[in-house]
Amino acid sequence: NAGTEADVYITIYGEKGDTGSRQLHRSPKPKKFLKGQTDNFAVEAVHLGHLYKIAIGHNGLGSGNGWFLDKVVIKDPITDLDYTFFCHRWLDHGQDDGKIARELAVTESGPFSGRQEMELKREESWAAEKWKFQEGNTLQFYNRLTRGFICLSPDGKVDALGDKKNKYGIFHLLLCI
Q1: DSSP assignment of 20-34
Q2: PLAT domain location, by residue (predicted)?
């Protein structure tokens, strides 16, 4: 459910002006904005010079309108430069911070852009998940190997049995090494 059927709009900002809000509707693919899919669009505009930000969002209409946007890459045909705008967030009233539009700054290109992308994804993941670790919350983890629960209480106590009936308090812990 990371794709959207809503109408998506973008505004591209450069040192010489902006495009104004443009709907992204002409794509070579029959269905646009599907999970895991890369869509390509041609946006006609005067040359904006060096690009520095975009505003992208959707109108929130249609079933399943929430959208998880990884990134936007704009290829300038005049200078042959690629501008990357990392998002890695939801544009959804019911997810993340509830926004359906975002302003994204250009990511500087170079040898550290991959590292920048990883750091941004880490920060965004933490921003979406940190509510679980707020004071007063009790976390319950399920260990698939032992098929048991571990409950971490706000007072620092650890219960290796946990509450097996509380299916909403279970969080799967994934470790990436």
Answers
A1: --EE----SSSS-S-
A2: 1-105
Alpha-carbon 117 to chain mean position: 12
Which bin fits 113, alpha (ψ -120 to 50), beta or left (φ > 0)? alpha
Q: Which residue(s) pair with 143 in the sheet? A: 148
Q: Which fold has domain 8-116?
A: Lipoxygenase-1 (2.60.60)
Decide if 74 contacts 61 (C-beta within 8 A): no
Where does the chain hold its CATH 2.60.60.20 domain(s)?
Answer: 8-116
| pTM reported for the whole predicted model | 0.61
- The torsion angles phi and psi of 102, rounded to 5 degrees, stand at -140, 150
Pairwise CA distance, residues 80 & 59, whole Å: 31
Report pLDDT digits (tens) over 56-114.
999 888 777 788 888 899 999 888 889 999 888 888 888 878 889 999 999 875 545 56
